[in-house]
Design goal:
The complex is a heterodimer. Helices cover 38% and strands 21% of the residues of chain A. Chain A contains five helices and five strands. The two termini of chain A are 22 Å apart. The relative contact order of chain A is 0.17. The chains are: A alpha+beta, B alpha+beta.
Amino acid sequence: MGLLDERDQTAVRKEFEKLTGPVKLVVFSQSLEAAELSRQNEELIKEVAELAPDAITVEMLNLAIDRERAERYGIERVPATVVEGARDYGIRFLGIPAGYEFANLIDSIIAVSSGTAALTQETQAALAELGGDVDIKVFSTPT
Amino acid sequence: MRLAQHMAIASDRVTATAIEATEFPDLSRSYRVSAVPKIVINDRVEFEGALPEPDFLGAVLRAVAPEA
């Protein structure tokens, strides 16, 4: 029994028709810390990727072993998932992207596949002029 | 998270991290998360709830503005 039921799968498959390029989901886990959450996160990401196997690849890494990769991605905690398109845009999910965040995970996968931001011209123009780095953390709960 | 992740795509200077608050109680405590969604930008500007795009952008710009 998977984490996604048939209705979810159908809805996500339909959304994935919008994919326009390859996407890589890099999953960080650790068995000593957060073993069960890591396992569930791996399972969810695998199930999502299987809905568009031609476009989405998954790489499973271990926070304790793949330290260099973790450092490069700025990952210090698990479970964590990096959503990459043609390059790393800086999108990360800490914890299992279930419930409310699940829709954002799917949206981010589609957005990185094309590298196109769904923002107004005004917003994009302002972001192009940013005078410093911006780290945005969004805390949410599954329900 | 939606606006944040699109901003990350639009600019190399922006990173967006969704954090599942109940799985990371230590982070939730240090960022004083009492209602969700809670957005924290550069550990400097924070707000709760969804904002329209121009207001979200305003928060981002405040977070990189020089200290007054």
